[in-house]
C-alpha cells in the first residue's frame, strides 16, 4: 500500500501525520547536511561594566543575502540586573531525536553571578525571542544548596542538567549538578549524595559508554575577584576531570591532570556516540588533554596539544600562556578548533589520528601582543615582535578570541571576545570601554585553512545602551557544542 511521506526538516519524517521524530538529527553526519544557520543568539553582558543595565540576548542575522546581514536585529533584556549571562543550552536537542513530544524550543540561559536561569522561547518568533520562565536562585539554593550555574545540557529524558560551580558563599566544595524537569521546575541534585566534584565547570555525557565527564575551573570566591596566580598555589583552582556513571550519577574516578593540566575548562567527547574519548582544554597551562577509556573500563589521559607560552615584555608575567578558553570539534570529528584568548589566535587541527593532532591552520584575530599594544613578544634570538592583526570593516580587533561556534557544515567559524567581565577588565580593559564583537572565519574543510571573512563584523560597541560584552553563541537549529547523540 502506498504511503504519503512528507519531509518536515532534514532528519525528520512524518508518515500520514504520525511517527514524527523529535528535535535535532539522527546522527552527527546527518546534522552536517542540515540547513545553513540564518540567525545566531548571543549572550550579551552589562554586568560588571558599570553601565547599570540588565544583560540581554541578542539575535544576529547571519544570512549573507539579507539586508541586515551581520547586524543585531533584536535584543531581549533580562528583567534583572547583575546576572552575568554566560553559557547557554537547549531544553531538548538531538539526544531527544526519538521523542516526538519534544521540541527544541527554549534556550536555557544560566546566570553565572546571580544564579538565575532563564528559559527563552525561540519558537514563537525565532527573530524576536521572548522570556518564558525564570528559575530563581533562592529556589535552587533552598532545595540543593547550589549556586553559580554554568553549563546546561538537554537530556534524552526531556530533563535539563546544569552544572554549578559552588555554594552561595562561593566555596568550590559546594559544586554539583542541578536537574530540572521539562518545564524548568527544580527536581534536585543529579549526582548521588557524597559524589559531588571538587570543583565544577563544564560537562559532557556519552551514553553508549555510560559515562559523563566534568571539568573544574575554580572556586567562585576566587575567580569572581579576578585572576590571582596565588589562588592557584592556594588550591582555589582545579586540575581534575571527574568521571561519573551515566545516568547513575556516581563519581567513579577522578583524573588528576597535574601541573600540566591547570584550569581544565571546556570538555567534549567526539560527536560519534560510539567513541570513548574526547578532549579538555586546560586554560592556564594551555594544553589540550585527551582522555580515553582503557580496556579495563577505567579512564586515562595524555597531553595531545601543547601551546607554548610566549616570552613577553611589559606584561604582568615574564611568560604569557595562550590561555585556551574554548574549543570545539567538527561534527564529522575530523577537525578540532581552539581559541587562545591571550595570544590572540584561533587554531585548526586535524584529529583523524586523535592521539596526534596536526596543526593545519592558524589565524590571529587580536591578542595582547598585537601591533598597537604596549606588550612585546620575544623571539628565541632575543628580538622582539608584535603580531599584525588586520582590521575588519575599518575596526581594530579588540581583545582576543574567546567563545567559538562552528556551522553545521563546518565551513563557518564564529568567534566572540569576552571571557568574563571581571577578567575582561583585568586583561583587556578596552573591551569594557569599547565593547565586544563577533567575527566569522571561513574554513577550508578539505585541506584545512582559516581566513577572516571581511564582510562580517558585529560591533557590540555601538549598542543603544552602550558597549556590551558578547559571550556564547547558539543557532536555532543546534550546533557543534550543544547536541549530544545517544
From TrEMBL:
Listed GO MF terms: selenium binding
Entry annotated with the keyword Cytoplasm: no
Keyword set, alphabetical order: Selenium
Keyword Iron included in the entry's annotation: no
Pfam family, any one: SBP56
Family statement: Belongs to the selenium-binding protein family.
Name of the protein: Selenium-binding protein 1-like
Organism the protein comes from: Nicotiana tabacum (Common tobacco)
Amino acid at each position: 500500500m502506498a504511503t504519503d511521506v512528507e519531509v518536515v526538516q532534514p532528519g525528520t519524517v512524518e508518515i500520514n501525520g504520525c511517527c514524527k521524530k523529535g528535535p535535532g538529527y539522527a546522527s552527527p553526519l546527518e546534522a552536517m547536511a542540515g540547513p545553513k544557520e540564518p540567525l545566531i543568539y548571543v549572550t550579551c553582558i552589562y554586568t560588571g561594566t558599570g553601565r547599570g543595565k540588565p544583560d540581554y540576548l541578542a539575535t544576529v542575522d547571519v544570512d549573507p543575502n539579507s539586508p541586515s546581514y551581520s547586524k543585531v536585529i533584536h535584543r531581549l533584556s533580562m528583567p534583572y540586573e547583575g546576572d552575568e549571562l554566560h553559557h547557554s543550552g537547549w531544553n531538548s536537542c538531538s539526544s531527544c531525536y526519538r521523542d516526538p513530544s519534544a521540541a527544541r524550543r527554549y534556550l536555557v540561559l544560566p546566570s553565572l553571578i546571580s544564579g538565575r536561569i532563564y528559559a527563552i522561547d525561540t519558537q514563537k518568533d525565532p527573530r524576536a525571542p521572548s522570556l518564558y520562565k525564570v528559575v530563581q536562585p533562592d529556589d535552587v539554593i533552598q532545595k540543593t544548596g547550589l549556586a553559580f550555574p554554568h553549563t546546561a545540557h538537554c537530556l534524552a529524558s526531556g530533563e535539563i542538567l546544569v552544572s554549578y560551580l559552588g555554594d552561595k558563599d562561593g566555596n568550590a566544595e559546594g559544586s554539583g549538578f542541578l536537574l530540572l524537569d521539562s518545564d524548568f521546575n527544580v527536581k534536585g541534585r543529579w549526582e548521588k549524595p557524597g559524589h559531588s566534584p571538587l570543583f565544577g565547570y563544564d560537562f559532557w555525557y556519552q551514553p553508549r559508554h555510560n559515562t559523563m565527564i566534568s571539568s573544574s575551573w575554580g572556586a567562585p570566591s576566587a575567580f569572581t575577584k579576578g585572576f590571582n596566580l596565588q589562588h592557584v598555589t592556594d588550591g582555589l583552582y582545579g586540575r581534575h576531570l571527574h568521571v561519573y556513571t551515566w545516568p547513575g550519577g556516581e563519581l567513579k574516578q577522578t583524573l588528576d591532570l597535574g601541573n600540566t593540566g591547570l584550569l581544565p575548562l571546556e570538555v567534549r567527547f567526539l560527536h560519534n556516540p560510539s567513541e570513548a574519548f574526547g578532549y579538555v582544554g586546560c586554560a592556564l597551562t594551555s594544553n589540550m588533554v585527551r582522555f580515553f577509556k582503557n580496556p579495563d573500563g577505567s579512564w586515562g589521559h595524555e597531553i595531545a596539544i601543547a601551546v607554548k607560552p610566549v616570552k613577553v615584555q611589559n606584561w604582568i608575567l615574564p611568560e604569557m600562556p595562550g590561555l585556551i578558553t574554548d574549543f570545539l570539534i567538527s561534527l564529522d570529528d575530523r577537525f578540532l578548533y581552539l581559541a587562545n584568548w591571550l595570544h590572540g589566535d584561533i587554531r585548526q587541527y586535524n584529529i583523524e589520528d586523535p592521539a596526534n593532532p596536526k596543526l593545519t591552520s592558524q589565524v590571529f584575530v587580536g591578542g595582547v601582543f598585537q601591533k598597537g599594544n604596549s606588550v612585546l613578544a620575544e623571539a628565541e634570538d632575543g628580538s622582539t615582535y608584535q603580531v599584525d592583526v588586520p582590521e575588519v570593516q575599518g575596526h581594530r580587533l579588540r581583545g582576543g578570541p574567546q567563545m567559538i561556534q562552528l556551522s553545521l557544515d563546518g565551513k563557518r567559524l564564529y568567534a566572540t571576545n569576552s571571557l568574563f567581565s571581571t577578567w575582561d577588565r583585568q586583561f583587556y580593559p578596552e573591551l569594557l570601554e569599547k565593547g565586544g564583537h563577533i567575527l566569522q572565519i571561513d574554513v577550508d574543510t578539505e585541506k584545512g585553512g582559516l581566513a577572516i571573512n571581511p564582510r562580517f563584523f558585529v560591533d557590540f560597541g555601538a549598542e543603544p545602551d552602550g558597549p556590551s560584552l558578547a559571550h556564547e553563541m547558539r543557532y536555532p537549529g543546534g550546533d557543534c557544542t550543544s547536541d549530544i547523540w545517544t
